[in-house]
Amino acid sequence: MSNDEIFQVKVIVLTFATYIAMLLHYLGLSTEIFVIYAFLLVVDYLTGIGRAYKLDIKITSKEMWAGIISKLSSLFVPILLGMGFKTVGADGVKALEVGMIILSLSEVYSSISNIHAIKTTKDLPEFDALASIARWLKAKILSYEEKK
């Protein structure tokens, strides 16, 4: 990579980070919780690679990119929830914080599960926090529809 290409990547990353920070501020979501969640996503990704290596699970570069895209896309869940709350004029800050805590704890569980598999070569059961949040959101939408 040339210096010019590196500079362009830095500009894109910093621009993206600026937009995310502006959105977080607009939504009233704690930047600290968001950064911790992002860090936990990275830890889970890395421990997942370690788990795959230890359990002799072959990973292709396509699967690695799919994992990266999956982790990055989950960063948008709290932003989407916040925008949804803004759309209906609701103060969703507490709900967003709870959602972020659930997502963060899910990543902690997943990382610990990966470390457990690295140490014992045995997997722990999965926990799908996104499915839990989606079920909660569906119930809220249905409740909102019934009030109309």
UniProtKB/TrEMBL annotation:
<protein>
    <recommendedName>
        <fullName>Holin</fullName>
    </recommendedName>
</protein>
<keyword id="KW-1133">Transmembrane helix</keyword>
<dbReference type="Pfam" id="PF05105">
    <property type="entry name" value="Phage_holin_4_1"/>
</dbReference>
<feature type="transmembrane region" description="Helical">
    <location>
        <begin position="33"/>
        <end position="53"/>
    </location>
</feature>
<dbReference type="GO" id="GO:0016020">
    <property type="term" value="C:membrane"/>
</dbReference>
<keyword id="KW-0472">Membrane</keyword>
<feature type="transmembrane region" description="Helical">
    <location>
        <begin position="7"/>
        <end position="27"/>
    </location>
</feature>
<dbReference type="InterPro" id="IPR006480">
    <property type="entry name" value="Phage_holin_4_1"/>
</dbReference>
<keyword id="KW-0812">Transmembrane</keyword>
